[in-house]
Amino acid sequence: MTSPTRFSYGFLALLLVLVIWLHLAVPLLAVLFSLFVLNKLTFGKHKWLAVVLFILVIAGVSYGAVHFLRAAVVAFPKIAETSIPSVLAWAQSRNIELPFSDYSSLKDLAVDTVREQLHSVGTLARGATSHLVFLLIGAVVAISLFLNSQLDLDRHSHRVKNNLYSLCCEAIAERFFALYQSFSTVMGAQIVISLINTLLTTVFVFIVHLPYGLVVIGVTFLCGLLPVVGNLISNTIIVGVAFTISPRFAFIALIFLIVVHKLEYFLNSKIVGDRIRNPVWLTLLGLLIGEKLMGLPGMILAPVILNYIRVETSQIEVVTPPKE
Q1: DSSP-derived secondary structure letter, 40
Q2: What is the DSSP string of 45-86?
Q3: Total domain count for the chain?
Q4: Terminal CA-to-CA distance of the chain, rounded, Å?
Q5: Cβ(296)–Cβ(236) under 8 Å?
Q6: Are 214 and 68 within 8 A, CB to CB?
Q7: Distance between CA atoms of 278 and 284, rounded to whole angstroms?
Q8: Going by C-beta distance under 8 Å and a sequence separation of 6 or more, which residues neighbour residue 35?
C-alpha cells in the first residue's frame, strides 16, 4: 500500500470522526443523497440538464414535504384522541398495563420526553434552521462535485507530475467515491424496498378506506428508508390509525402487515441481501451506535459505513509471513 493510499484512509477516518464530533451527519447525508439523485437524473453527458432536473425535483419534494407536514400536524392529534380510548379499552379487557391512562397523560408523557431532548422552543427553531442551511449547503456541494470532482485543479500544470499532493488528492477522491458507492448500494436497495412497501400500503389504504391515507402513505415511505426499525415505526402508526375505526379493524390491519412482512423477507433477501453482505445483528448494532452518536441521521449512515468498511477492507491483501 502506497503512502498516498494510507493517507487517504486516515483522512476519511478523520473526516468521519469530525462528522460525529461536530454533528455534521445531516450535511454529509445531503451531499451523498444529492449526488445519488444527480447521477440517477444524468442522461448521457448533459450534466447541466441533470442539475436543472435536480433543482426541479428538490422544489417538488419540498412542496410535497410542506403539504405532508401540514396534514400530519393536523392528523396525529386526531388519531391519538380517537384511537387511545379504543387501545385503553382493549388493553384493560386483557389486563395489560400501559404507561398512560388517557390522551392527557399520553400528551404529558410525550411532552416530558421532548423536554428531555430540548431545553426550549428557541433551541428547536435554531436546530431546524441550521438543518435547513446544512441541507442547502450539502446540495450545493453535491452539485459542485457532480460538475467537477477533481480536488487538485492544477493537476496537469505541476512541474512534478507524480507529486505527493496530487497523488493524495487522487487517493482521497477514490475513498470518497467508494463511500458514495456504498451509500448508493444501501440507499438504492432501501428505496426499492420502501417503494414496494408503500405501494402495497397504498392499495390497502384505498381498498379498506383507511382514514388519514395521505399521512399513512407518507409515513410508510419515509420510515421505509430506515432499515429494520423503520417498518416497526410505520406499522405502529398504521395499527393506531386502524384503532380509530375499531379493534377488529386494527387486527385486520395487523394481519395485512404480517403478510406484507413475509413478502418483504423474500424481497430483502433478493434486493438487499444480494447487495449488502452484512449479518442482521451487525446492522442492528450499527443502528444502535449510529443513533446514539448522531441520532436519526446516524441510523441512516450506519449501514452505509458498515458496507463501506467491508468493501474497502476486502480489497486490501494481507501478506502473512511464511511459517518457519
Answers
A1: H
A2: T-HHHHHHHHHHHHHHHHHHHHHHHHHHHHHHHHHHHHHHHH
A3: 1
A4: 25
A5: no
A6: yes
A7: 10
A8: 142, 145, 146, 180
**Which of 2-11, 172-181, 192-201, 266-275 is least confident?**
266-275
Cβ(287)–Cβ(232) below 8 Å: no
Q: Which residues of 203-236 are buried (b: 16+ CB within 10 A; e: fewer)?
A: ebbeeeebbbbebbbbbbbbbbebbeebbeebbe
For residues 278 and 273, give the distance between their C-alpha atoms in angstroms, rounded to a whole number: 8
Q: What would the pLDDT profile of 185-232 be if each residue is shown by its tens digit? A: 888 888 887 888 888 888 888 887 887 788 888 888 887 777 666 677
Angle at CA of residue 208, ends 204 and 214, nearest 5°: 65
In a domain, 319, yes or no: no
Domain around 16: 3-314
Q: Buried b vs exposed e over 71-80: b needs ≥16 C-beta within 10 Å?
A: ebeebbeebb
In a domain, 283, yes or no: yes
In a domain, 228, yes or no: yes
Residue the block writes with cell 431546524 = 128
Is 68 exposed, middle or buried, given 0-12, 13-18 or 19+ CB atoms closer than 10 A?
Answer: middle
Specify the pTM: 0.74
Instruction: Say which residues have a Cβ less than 8 Å from residue 296's Cβ, sequence separation at least 6.
Output: 226
Asked whether residue 320 is assigned to any structural domain, the reply reads: no
